[in-house]
Amino acid sequence: MATKKSVGDLKEADLKGKKVFVRVDLNVPLDENLNITDDTRVRAAVPTIKYLIGYGAKVILSSHLGRPKGVTPKYSLKPLVPRLSELLGVKVEMADDCIGEGVEKMVAALPDGGVLLLENVRFHKEEEKNDPEFAKKLASLADLYVNDAFGTAHRAHASTEGVAKYLKPAVAGFLMQKELDYLVGAVLNPKKPFAAIVGGSKVSSKIGVIESLLEKVDVLILAGGMMFTFYKAQGYSVGSSLVEEDKLDLACSLIEKAKAKGVSLLLPTDVVIADKFAADADSKVVPASQIPDGWMGLDIGPDSIKTFSVSLDSTKTVIWNGPMGVFEFDKFAVGTEAIAKKLAELSGNGVTTIIGGGDSVAAVEKAGLAEKMSHISTGGGASLELLEGKTLPGVLALNDA
Predict the structure, then answer these.
(1) Helix (H), strand (E) counts: the chain
(2) Is domain 182-387 given the CATH code 3.50.50.60 in the classification?
(3) Beta strands in 288-372 (DSSP E)
(4) At residue 202, does pLDDT exceed 70?
(5) How far apart are CA 331 and CA 83, in angstroms?
(6) Any idea where the domains of the chain sit in the sequence?
(7) 265: annotated binding-site residue?
(8) For the chain, N or C: smaller number of CB within 10 Å?
(9) What does the pLDDT read at residue 195?
(10) Residue 300 contacts residue 273 (beta carbons within 8 Å)
(11) Residue 358, burial from CB neighbour count under 10 angstroms (0-12, 13-18, 19+)
């Protein structure tokens, strides 16, 4: 799955004067005044676009934003034009739709090296249905296809999978390529010892990942809200911490499976507990097995941080998906930040560190350590599915190298 034809395989002869339909992931957070609050994804899209315009291609950008039901002004991509233009150093044109006569006119007027941003592709319900007629209309705007939207590669939508049927070549962008190299590479062929740190609130959303990683890792660290389900499964009292009662048997079987496979499975030995779920809650540290009634665990304790750090010292590859605690509250962000710092330090010593999407990315950005990691995945759901060993429709649709 990692060996797809890449945009880097295309040169001037393939690109000059050609219209290239580029699916990017510009699904960025906007505040109520429609200002971009985090432009990571916009910056991530730049290398592929710059490469294409550098060879004189006419670039047609397509993306979704949010989950609109029909045309919804607050989900328009218009607010992205200034930042995109600034990063690319060219004036990006903006269409009012993603198909139709108006769009066709704008495409026809594009100069070599010009960039046109289409309006939110999810304004049409046919996008998520992967409607072939709609995909054909999108494809009719261009000569070839580049998919650089790893964040939606796990969805078989018209702009991520459908258009690839009608445009040749269909290739991976640089970001897509990097994601596949790291995530697929790490899972199929990691430098050992290989550790995975899985956090987040629910075991249920991470079952597939944990089961898949148990086949591959030497060390598996489980923390975040899901640890209380594991504690309760072992007969510990968990107070009013988050527990998935219907997953207790599963937790036991995962512990057994780790033993059988010789995987070192680590759960936190101590917990920071709080008297309520709030930023200003009273808190104290207790052993994992002694959470009193009426209290809830919101972070891992200092002893766990030490144990986890020591277990990571001998590793060569680490994947991290999901925070250690409620890192949105500063008081309960200590564990998550400590792990981020540890991974940054390991990266500096030549360990491959992969931050696999979602909240862990936000935590690493918040700690100001993003630059230090080997790879930060831009796709939440897509990276989870890859780590589970699933194939992604948006990747399968591309031409093989």
Answers:
(1) 15, 17
(2) no
(3) 290-291, 296-300, 317-321, 352-355
(4) yes
(5) 34
(6) 7-175, 182-387
(7) no
(8) C
(9) 96
(10) no
(11) buried
The fold of 7-175 is: Rossmann fold (3.40.50)
pLDDT bracket for residue 2 (50, 70, 90): low
Q: Is the pLDDT of residue 144 over 60?
A: yes
Confidence class for position 185, pLDDT limits 50, 70, 90? confident
The answer to whether 360 is annotated as binding is yes
Neighbours of 81 (CB within 10 A): 15
In this structure, are strands 194-198 and 219-222 parallel, antiparallel, or unpaired?
Answer: parallel
pLDDT tens digits, residue range 270-284? 999 999 999 999 999
Check whether 64 is labelled as a binding-site residue.
yes
Q: Which residues are catalytic?
A: 41, 202, 358, 381
Question: Residues 118-144: what's their mean pLDDT?
Answer: 98
Is 357 annotated as ligand-binding?
Answer: yes
Residue 67 marked in a binding site:
yes
| SS3 of residue 76 by DSSP | coil
CA distance 72 to 358: 25
Residue pair 169/399 in contact (Cβ under 8 Å)? The answer is yes
